[in-house]
Amino acid sequence: xxxxxxxxxxxxxxxxxxxxxxxxxxxxxxxxxxxxxxxxxxxxxxxxxxxxxxxxxxxxxxxxxxxxxxxxxxxxxxxxxxxxxxxxxxxxxxxxxxxxxxxxxxxxxxxxxxxxxxxxxxxxxxxxxxxxxxxxxxxxxxxxxxxxxxxxxxxxxxxxxxxxxxxxxxxxxxxxxxxxxxxxxxxxxxxxxxxxxxxxxxxxxxxxxxxxxxxxxxxxxxxxxxxxxxxxxxxxxxxxxxxxxxxxxxxxxxxxxxxxxxxxxxxxxxxxxxxxxxxxxxxxxxxxxxxxxxxxxxxxxxxxxxxxxxxxxxxxxxxxxxxxxxxxxxxxxxxxxxxxxxxxxxxxxxxxxxxxxxxxxxxxxxxxxxxxxxxxxxxxxxxxxxxxxx
Length: 390
Ligand SMILES: *Cc1c(COP(=O)(O)O)cnc(C)c1O
Known about the structure:
The chain has 13 helices and 12 strands.
């Protein structure tokens, strides 16, 4: 079966008592057992059945199974947010005295997790330009526990060479962990590119209508002991498992992901091309444009679509604020890959709490507006941008 068919037709692990066609939402904390032996077997992982919804729930397992089918992963764990997937994964891999090699170009909370939270527990951040393979090779040492990156950085739109980073990671015997939120995992083969563990904010493309917050850790099984520790220690002790209601909504989202993504990325490409010709727009950053420095590399890694996030640069911060205030159709909001087109000024919002110097080191500029392109008719989105620019 092709991926889109699997997204629709993956079956429940156990048949529903009423043959419900849609996965029932199992709103239950606990599960009853036939006898003491069955209970003991389940609690000690000899039997794969849910015992308590902090670690297993049939509705959440159904979403995990679908993602497993679509990615070919060994295991998938669903979390209460993208940040929970990232923090649980890094806590599972890291320990005091070791370091994480990553970039300054990171989602704001991932940056803060690595440079503040984990640092307080003795894990050292080692940040460099991950597009500079030589620099990465020099930075990785015997205490490095992983290389962590985002496949397209936000809002810089930088793309690192995953195959080259995977070679370095493999030579050192450490995992390459990639946040793949910016391109759906249905569009490319993360494992073939050498990613060992993917982390995803399912809040974004998967949920579709921006219904709810969730995250996924997709484990290809290359990292010795990782899967077992995640399921038997981290998930239990940190308690950040996805709730069944969110799993239900993200499963519905997953079924229409391919259709939505194709339209959103086509809308984004069309707008990027048209906005490149506008005088008030100083620069359009979109890896789908052939003159983008990462265009060829991105194509070789992620195929012929480039996602639905575009950034545009205007004259200065005031011009950006004026533009945002004049928007009529496009919504002023922070999410990505909502069905609705959204606009935000990253420097004053997501990266607002950082100092000027930190923002400079992250290449987050006052002149940049981030657009997440939705499912509206592309002409209506374009018209709104044009009237707001005038
Ligand atoms: C949104 C986002 C996150 C965080 O996900 P939440 O679901 O909001 O916790 C992490 N990484 C990237 C690239 C994101 O866009």
